[in-house]
Amino acid sequence: MGSDPSGASDRGTAPGPVAALREIGFWLERSRADTHRVKAYRRAAELVAELTADERESHRAARSWREIAGIGPKTAAVIEQAYEGAVPRYLAELRGAAQPIGVDGRPLRARLRGDLHTHSNWSDGGSPIEEMMDVAAALGHEYCALTDHSPRLTVANGLSADRLRRQLDRIAELNERMTPFRILTGIEVDILDDGALDQSADLLAELDIVVASVHSRLRDDSATMTKRMVHAVADPNVDVLGHCTGRLVEGRRGTRPESSFDAEVVFEACRTYGTAVEINSRPERRDPPARLLRLAVEMGCHFAVDTDAHAPGQLDWQGYGCERALANGVAAERVINTWPLEDLLAWTRRGGTRPVG
Question: Domain containing 225 — which CATH number?
Fold first, then answer.
């Protein structure tokens, strides 16, 4: 890949100050650094980007970057070093310390053409759509779905129908600039208590990708949870069943056990109705667990290896999911985001008429 995976600069050249600050944010996110550290660099990048050319030159000449509220000594040092035409020392350190992700998953990662589950600052993500998608393109993707949350998930600033329609207009604008890369319209729609979906069917039908996930009442009994999930995956608008067990195995949010459901029944519904089982690459999820992933393989399901990224650096986590997929017998041709865009969209648009097998 010729460009830096942050989408900020070419690795062979020294980046400008905004690109350098954003690339630092990328590497910190990728390594799961504390959120406040990431925000300091991303905020500084925004502040510098908002300055006029004359304002930048004035601060550069006076070395007065710290007079700008939100720029501290560390971010000011990065800006000054970038303006000197060098790779800032902290950026060079982060580049050198970066470890490969999912080495054993590389054969599958090389075949992935996109990511079907990502979030922006329209819901609970940390970065604008364009920054997320610039990084996705720099990572080598041909397409990437934006799947911000649906309205019921208020804690995640879920999108009302009106906000989602405004987002679709913004995506259309960005797609004109980013071609041939394609931003896919999408949503991570909540599976409600009765298995219904948290958005109107007509609006869901307009989207390229619909990921359906359970975020509430995760401790429902097995029969109830099974019924909810089957009802959702049978919906012709649903393309992917997101993080099916809802478990958390590590991280700042603590741990959470798997939801209880009849996996054979749910995966048979996925197979029958043409809904892919998501292999969620987030380190704290690793969902589904290995035994269920192997079961879904045995039952002939399709899969989507997704990052569920909430920040640009997390878009590089796909290798974690690829490694788990290959370790549990997932064939690349059963992974829908290895497919060319035309084939993927033909499959998703067939909805309930998708053939099994």
Answer: 3.20.20.140
In whole angstroms, how far apart are CA 128 and each of 29, 134, 170, 259? Answer: 15, 10, 11, 32
Contact 299, 267 (CB under 8 A): yes
**How far, in Å, CA of 238 to CA of 221, rounded?**
23
Q: Are residue 57 and residue 136 in the same domain, yes or no?
A: no
CB 63 within 8 A of CB 279: no
66 and 108: one domain? no
Task: Report the 10 Å Cβ neighbour count for 81.
Answer: 19
For residues 271 and 343, state if they share a domain: yes
85 and 164 in a single domain? The answer is no
DSSP H or E stretch at residue 268: helix 263-273
Which positions ≥6 away from 336 have C-beta within 8 Å? 116, 239, 240, 276, 302, 303, 304, 344, 347
Convert the pLDDT of each residue in 111-163 to its tens digit: 999 999 999 999 999 999 999 999 999 999 999 999 999 999 998 999 999 99
Q: Is residue 2 part of a domain?
A: no
DSSP output for 181-207: SEEEEEEEEEB-TTS-BSS-HHHHHH-
Residues 73, 112 within the same domain: no
Rounded to whole angstroms, how far apart are CA atoms 180 and 188? 24
Strands 276-280 and 143-146, sheet pairing: unpaired
179 secondary structure, DSSP code: T
Contacts of 147 (CB under 8 A, 6+ apart): 116, 117, 118, 119, 186, 187, 188, 209, 211
Please report the pLDDT score of residue 9 as a whole number.
47
Task: Return left, alpha or beta for 187; rule: phi > 0 is left, psi -120 to 50 is alpha, else beta.
Answer: beta
The one-letter code for the residue type at 50 is: E
- Can you give the pTM of this predicted structure? 0.93
The whole domain housing 27 covers 17-97
